[in-house]
## 1
Amino acid sequence: MRSGWWNGTWLVARRALAEGLASRSWRVVTGLMLLAGLAVVVVPRLLGEEATTYRLAVVGEAPEALTRQLDAAGRAADFQVRVLARSDAAAVEATVRDGDADVGLAGSGQGTTVYVGPDRAGPFPSIVAGAVTAGRTAQALVDAGLTPQQIATVQGTEPPRQVVVGRVDDRARAGVGFAVGIVLYIALLITGIGIATTVATEKATRVSEVLLSVLRPSQLLVGTVVGAGLLSLLQIAALAVPAGGSLLLSHRSDVPASAAPDIALAVLWFLLGLAVYAFVFAALAALVDKVTEVNGAIVPVQMLLIGAYLIAVVVTISSPTSPVSVAASLFPLTSPIVMPVRWASGLVPVWQLVASMVLAVATAVLLARFASLVYRRGVVRTGQRVKLREVLGREHAPSPGLVRPTRGQGSGRV
């Protein structure tokens, strides 16, 4: 396209951006998203300052060898152990049953018993059992006549190498994918509603007719979409930058390093989703006559977004390789929300990601051409709500007083 077309389009985008930045509602929403981003950083630190503490009930004093092994395990896994002394095995069992201790230990040798609460206290029962077994093994080796050096050699034997051949159970990364799906859904929905409202307002106030006297319909359509997209990117940045910066600077983040590409990919999918949905929002809004009719006009696109969101958070999170998840991640009208969530599972072949993106780009181009046709014919018709089949049937005459831009126009001031 000629530079004049882009110049006129950028003028429209800059105008939409300036009006959005000046809007009180936009600034309030952006401020709330910034606070949410800061809360993601601050709240976990406030709630998670203390290390996990497990309570171990024992008869009398805990053996020194046991406490040494538990302390070593605690330093490695970032937890602490508080030992509760009890008079006998019955008292130990009662302490665990009443919930005052997570694990109880009574007896010695072959008669050792480990009492576990109903919630099983995570991995701690297995850690205690392993420490007890290791102590008994060391004592057996001493009784067999081995020297301390020989015992250290036996206990220092490295375990076999583990190779994961199934699904990687990375709950932290899956949690990031879940959050990405929610943010994408909200961002695309808010952006689409904003675009539709802008188009309907300009049509109802006849501003679009004034703009179309010096601009082409495609310039007005694309410029509006670009301006609204930039406003949404600023809001997403307000939410993501504080959290992302904390992840980069923090050494104790619960978010795995493998999730960083997922977050970057989410931004790309937002742009692809914006290209797919935004033009349809604008085209449907061009059919209404009053701003109050916008909500009803864009219901089909909203239902499509809601359907994609439900598939992502209900089906894909729990079963990323199911036929429904695979199909929805490849289908261009649902892939902008489903594929980022599915990709976070770590089970998506690269070719499926590439194919999904290519299909989304191709669909965005086709929808942009379709939306441009609907927008060009619908935005000039005022006085009543226009039906989609009417604008697709044939070219309609412009409304009275509307001047179509000539072939050489398209770069005037907005």
## 2
Amino acid sequence: VRVDEESEQAVQVAFTVRTLKTPFVLERTLRLETNDPTLYVTSRVENESDVPLRAMWGEHLAFGRPFLDQTCRITVPDRLTIHPNQEAETNDRRLALKSSTWPYAVGAKGEEIDLSRLPEPGEPSDWAYLSGFTDGWYEIEHPEKQIGMRVEWDAENMPYLWYWQEFNGLTGYPWWGRNYVVGLEPHAAIGTGALAVSVNAFANFAGYARAGRVRWRPAILFAVIGIVGAAIGSSLGKVFDGQRLLLLFAILMVVVGVLMLRRKPQPVGDPNMVAGGRISVPKVTGAALSVGLLSGFFGIGGGFLIVPGLLFSTGMPMIAAVASSLLSVGTFGLTT
């Protein structure tokens, strides 16, 4: 923490932190000036390494009790587009997967929902993205309490607004049915979920392929067969409750971890593991179908499943399994 200014005219404080797993330094400066009700927030990120890195920046602004209730109103610039989050497709969501013009969204049952108004507690949770900002601002006010606030930002750097909602509807972790909250968060990009995973996987796969790490025959067979399982699993996952999916996913991770610990390492020099070596098509097919089904069911790229699947069905070395798995990660992500 650093106090940059403390006078009768203004107070300015800076907060700095270094990230643990990435070489970034983040600094946020807060400033208040005399006779001005505005809180000025300046954020800065610095890459301390010589390696070019990409990052998505967003501001995590959320509003809740006692300020927030169903009488509050949200105002944004005219003619913004509402994009419901594609990754939240469950049977208890509030919004349909159809874009629309603010403030009216299409409800899960085809009804019209005014997102500028907040519902009674107990409505399903959901989130969407707003795009089309030329000027970055929104207002949220409580007419009865005669209090509100306006948030402004640089729309050129952060052209999207994430709008997420939790109306006491989620009874599991981390909410437990206790929170009536909305988030209105300026962001540099729209979250792309499985699509981003796919693009990243294919990019890394190309690097491994150039290095000769990919075992092409099992990689292609696993990806092609796995697509079928992923398509089936994706359809099944959409009819399951989100909390049950979370529990099943946790159990699956434990099972995979135990199996990996019990696995006997395959000698790197095994003659069957060369790039053009023999594979058991039935074993690879069965593993690919199973892994694809689970990946689609849980809506994930499935890397932590595909690598064990390749290891157990072919016995290839770990580095080859990691490299070969990325073809399936990319294709599964596009399928789900």
## 3
Amino acid sequence: ACNPSLSSEAAQQTLAQDQHSSVRISLAKNPSLAPAVQQTLAQDQDDRVQPTLAGNPCLAPAVQQTLAQDQNAGVRSNLAGNPCLTSEAWQERLARDQNEWVRRDLAHNPSLISNARQKRLAQDKDAEVRAALARNPSLISNARQKRLAQDKDAEVRAALARNPSLSSEATQQRLAQDQDTEVRRHLADNPSLTSDARQERLARDQNAGVRKALARNPSLSSEAAQQTLARDQNVEVRAALAGNRSSLTPAVQQTLAQDQNIFVQLGGF
């Protein structure tokens, strides 16, 4: 039933009406389902079929409409997280859903590119929804990043700090100064951190965990930051830097080769 080579609509319809629910559930996963068969499964009496169908990567628009209005929150949640959900109308409906799990799944959907939807979710009352949006790689709006960097919940700011699309210099600067250690640590570990100024600030961070995260960041390009870390009093920081050899300048490699700790000399633990 879940074989993608099953292309015959007649065969699919036969399986969609099979008396065994396990067959219909397997069929609902099939990416080759005809739209008419999808509609049949969307009306199935077994409440395990629709949630499975909602996660199908090839859902027809009309079926998305049906499932977006389903009374089962599990169905709407699976649909909200489905990358094939590109309709702004149904994204907007799900962004207003009363169930926070539905809004969370929508918030981390990589197809969520509408500024209007992102703005709504960035203001959501549920911190988990805002955190899901903050870590979504489709979040490229500087305005949305700026708002989330000012969020009252540290979990949201930490999620943003590790977002691979974090490109705003102003937002990175704010996060580098965040009072929460986890926020700064996630930023230090983020390959999108390419600013020499931010790297040099974090290389002097009071928390060793932050400095260690920066030391192993493959985007560590500032020689000043590298030299600061190469002389760090914490051996784990120096060892992490030594293990990041491909990013290091020859001068810094030489400094580490002369380190008093054998593990640092050999390129990390």
## 4
Amino acid sequence: MATVAFGGSRWFEGGDVPVGWLVRSCLLAGRRLAVGCCVGGDALAISAALAVPGGAAALSVFAAFGPGGEGAAGPASEVGLVLGAAAAGASVSFWAGGPAALPCAARLACRSAAVAAAAVAGGPGSAGVWLASWRPGASVAGPAFLRFSALVVAGGLPLFVFGCPSSALPALGFGSWAAAAPSGAWASGWRWLPALLRFVVGTK
């Protein structure tokens, strides 16, 4: 089933990004949502999904910790919210980044890969969305973003980024960033257009 993977910075606080509308529009379009387990972008996406009637049933959460919160990354993990999502009917995959024996950083990285992989497995209609934390003069090209975006783009899916200007976004190969939509909630973001796709779009 078509799935939209939401990822984001742990320092993402929402700002002017209409996270609730983005999540709601995905759910109303019949998409499933795949989200991680951390504070910031993950937490806001989970909360937005739970606020939509029936949203929990379409929500898949990938947690790097166990069902009792063991293995959590301290204050970076939203244990209570994830357990609440499970109680509300969301599908929660515990230890999604590997067993407790793995270092926490490795589990978080593998967990993020699992979130992106869920969207790739969803097939046509799937996409990746990154909620960026940005400050003037900075780039959002951190390891987490680059890992998430690489998996989404390699899977042939559209990649959208919110929370920063296009000048803060790195090139992801041959292509460029373009406005995500002409109007509506998605208009505040950016979409990566690989060179071939941009050529096709530009010739229509």
